[in-house]
Amino acid sequence: MTLIVDCPTCKTKVTWQPENEFRPFCSKRCQLIDLGEWADESNKISQQVTPEVEMTEEMLDALEGEFLQHNKFFVEPE
Ligand SMILES: [Zn+2]
C-alpha cells in the first residue's frame, strides 16, 4: 500500500515512504518553510501572553542573585 499525502507547504503529492526523509514535505525547503512559519506563530503567541511588565535593572539583578543562590554549582570556584 502506498500512502500519498499533500506537502503541507506547497500541496505537492508526496509518497509516504522511508526513503523520503522530509515526509510529509516534498523537500527540505518546504520543511524549513513550515518550521519557520511555526516558529513565527509561537513567537506571536508568546508575545500575546507576555505580561506588560518592564524588567528594571533592579529586578534583573535580584533574579540573577536568586538564580546564583539556587545554582551554586554554576559558580566557578576561585
Ligand atoms: Zn512542498
From TrEMBL:
Superkingdom, taxonomy of origin: Bacteria
Cofactor(s) required, per the database record: Zn(2+)
Q: Which UniProt keywords apply?
A: Metal-binding, Zinc
Matches recorded under InterPro entries: DNA_gyrase_inhibitor_YacG, Znf_NHR/GATA
Q: Name one Pfam family in it.
A: YacG
Q: Which residues make up the binding site for Zn(2+)? A: 7, 10, 26, 30
What remark does the entry make about the cofactor?
A: Binds 1 zinc ion.
> What is the purpose of this protein?
Inhibits all the catalytic activities of DNA gyrase by preventing its interaction with DNA. Acts by binding directly to the C-terminal domain of GyrB, which probably disrupts DNA binding by the gyrase.
* Protein name, as recorded: DNA gyrase inhibitor YacG
